[in-house]
Each structure stands twice: as structure tokens, then as C-alpha cells.
Amino acid sequence: MGLDFSVEQTPHPTSPERLAEILAVPGFGKHFTDHMVTVEWTPDSGWHNARVRPYGPLTLDPASHVFHYGQAIFEGFKAYRQPDGGIATFRPAFNGERFNRSAHRLALPELAVDDFVAASDRLVSQDAAWVPDSDDASLYLRPFMMATEVGLGVKPSGHVTFLVIASPAGPYFASGAKQVTIWLSEDYTRAAPGGTGAAKCGGNYAASLLAQQEGIANGCEQVLFLDAVERRWVEELGGMNLWFVQDDGTLVTPELTGTILEGGTRDALKTLAAELGHEVEERRVDIDEWRKGVDTGQITEVFACGTAAVIVPIGTLKWHGGEVSSPAETPVATKLRSALIDLQYGRTPDNHGWMHRVVEPGSGL
Ligand code: COI
Predict the structure, then answer these.
(1) How many angstroms does the Cα of residue 307 sit away from the middle of ligand 1?
(2) Helix and strand tally (H, E) in the chain?
(3) H or E segment at 270?
(4) Distance CA 201, CA 33 (A)
(5) Residue 15 DSSP class
(6) What is the pTM for the complete model shown?
(7) Tens digit of pLDDT per residue, the chain (365 long)?
(8) Separation of 14 CA from ligand 1 center, angstroms?
(9) Which of 28, 115, 119, 283 has the most CB atoms in a 10 Å sphere around its CB?
(10) Distance of CA 310 to the CA centre of its chain
């Protein structure tokens, strides 16, 4: 049986005027909807106390495990306003399944995918007015789970809290979908074999920040990580997967080695690219293949993808003492981006069963 949610409405809903202001320029991760979902877990009771409640600060004991040992995971997917006025999310079950793989790696309890999807659906329905009605904005859903047992013993937590919060989202990068510049991290790695690279846990992102700071200091928006063993194979950016377009039209993305996060956008693009007539290869990519390929013209485009960023072309790759730039024209990235967002915003038919309808048109929400 699924979770049974209680609902407590906020006594202070955002005014329609303020909401319109926020939705006009949402930014990314800056504003949060009026409600959130919380669910608790203990070994004896399993998942219980599922609540839709007013968005607000949590009261947590300072000795909660999560503050000390970082036992926490998260997800990200989006809800899109459809042409008929209804709302649909994109492949929430993909994220629910990945969430469980992350939970397993972090010794957290699994949550039934149906409950994961139902929790997000409840929040989207509750705060439906927060789903933007514009071409390049959506509602970003951030489910997360953390260890809330109190104590300093290092062990899997005997009390866990799952939450979903939501935030209207425009473009992730301030530059919109223009080409971004990437810093190659030569001193730091993100994930090692046997580690947590394939899990979506906060620690991976914390570990990327120093390199990210170095990138920003060198005029770059994102940082590129290589594998931790040979320091040679292209893995991923701080929070996005990578794609290369070859001069023969083949699309190449680094294969999943256990140290790379399996992105939902990456996965969808494999299908969409093939449908648009491209060969798709998942294989290891040497950093020198990128550097030389861009120089010789064998690589015609490089782009990053992720839920938050969608598809963003990469212009320049920089490192200590050098850089290479890809052509300014990015027809393949542009074509794939259109194919993906047209599907997500319901402008083209959903032939893959990827869209999950949450709110029907005319439901008053
Ligand atoms: C996403 O694309 O959803 C991510 O998780 C990347 C970043 C915002 C952490």
C-alpha cells in the first residue's frame, strides 16, 4: 500500500502578484514553493508520517547524523506546463530508480518508486500555480533523503527523513543556452572506483567545489573531471554529463564506469539522437581526443547535459597553460535541445511514454 499523505495548507500563501514576479524571472534554485513534502523512516515503522506541509525551516538536533557524516542523497527532475494548461513531469520513475541506487550506496533505506513519484505529484498538485507557463521555464523538483538519527556513532542512521521541495527554474547558466567555458581539473578528481561517483549524494558535489572555484577564478563556468586512476579519461562536469559530436555525425558520450552519474537527460538523448539519425557511442574518451579532435575538426561540437542545464554547448576548454575552442555554430546540440524540450513541453507527441501527467487541464489548479 502506498503512502498516506496528510495535508496542512500554508497560512501565508504567496500573493498572486509576488508569484507573477517570481515566475517572470525565476533564475535557478532561488525561490521555493509554498509547500514541501516530508516523510520519515525508522526500521520498525518503515516509511510513515507522510505530510504535505507549509514550506519552512526544519528543526533538527545538531547531533543528527547528516551534519557529521554526510549520509544524504538527492534527485532533480522537472514539471512542465503543457499546451492544454495541464502539468506533466519528465520520467520521474527514472529518477526514483536512480534514487534507490543512490540510497543503497549510502546505506539509506529504499523508497518505493511509486511513493517517490506520488510524493512529487502531491507537491506539484498542491503548488500547481508555481509551474511557469513560459517556453524556457519549469518547476524543478528536488527530492532528497537524509540521516536524522541523533548521535555521533558512525553507522547507518536508524531515523531517516525524505523530503521534496520545488523551485521554479529558468536557465541554469546566467548566459542562458550560449556556449560555456570549462576548466579542466588536473589537481582534483571527483570519484574513484568503488566510491560514490555513480550515486547522487551531496558529498560528490561538495568534493567538486574547490575545483569549481579554481575554474571560476580562471574565467570558466564549470569544471571537468578526469578519472581518478589514469587521470586521462573524460568523466563528467561538476553536475552534468558530456557529449561529443564527431565530423561523421556520430555522437559520443563517456561510458558509465561506476564513477559517472547516469544522467536522465544523457539517457534520453541516446534515444533522441538515434531517432534523429545519429550513431550513438558510449565509450571512454581520452582528454587528448577532445583537445586534438577540436583542433583537427574531427570533433565539431561538445555539449553538456543535465536536468537543470538541459543542453548547453561548450565553447572553450581551458587548463593550466592552454585552451582549445570548438566552433561557435552548434547545430546538433541545438537540434537535440529542441527535440527534447518540445517533447517535455508537450509540443511534440510523447512516443516513448516519458511524460507523466500530474495535473489535468481545467482541474482548477
Ligand atoms: C540536475 O541537473 O538536476 C542536477 O542535479 C545538477 C545540479 C543542479 C546539482
Answers:
(1) 6
(2) 8, 18
(3) helix 264-275
(4) 23
(5) P
(6) 0.96
(7) 799 999 999 999 999 999 999 999 999 999 999 999 999 999 999 999 999 999 999 999 999 999 999 999 999 999 999 999 999 999 999 999 999 999 999 999 999 999 999 999 999 999 999 999 998 899 999 999 999 999 999 999 999 999 999 999 998 887 765 899 999 999 999 999 999 999 999 999 999 999 999 999 999 999 999 999 999 999 999 889 999 999 999 999 999 999 999 999 999 999 999 999 999 999 999 999 999 999 999 999 999 999 999 999 999 999 999 999 999 999 999 999 999 999 999 999 999 999 999 999 877 55
(8) 26
(9) 119
(10) 9
Helix (H, G, I), strand (E, B) or coil at 322: strand
58 Cα to the center of ligand 1, angstroms = 23
**All structural domains of the chain:** 6-170+349-359 (3.30.470.10), 180-329 (3.20.10.10)
Report the atom number in ligand 1 closest to the C-alpha of 140: 3
How many C-beta neighbours within 10 Å does residue 194 have?
A: 8
- Ligand 1 mutation target, pool 90, 102, 240, most atoms within 8 A of CB: 240
Asked whether 308 lines ligand 1 (CB < 6 A), one says yes
Instruction: State the distance from the centre of ligand 1 to the C-alpha of 42, rounded, in angstroms.
Output: 28
Q: Which of 307, 312, 340 to mutate to test the pocket of ligand 1 (most atoms within 8 A of CB)?
A: 307
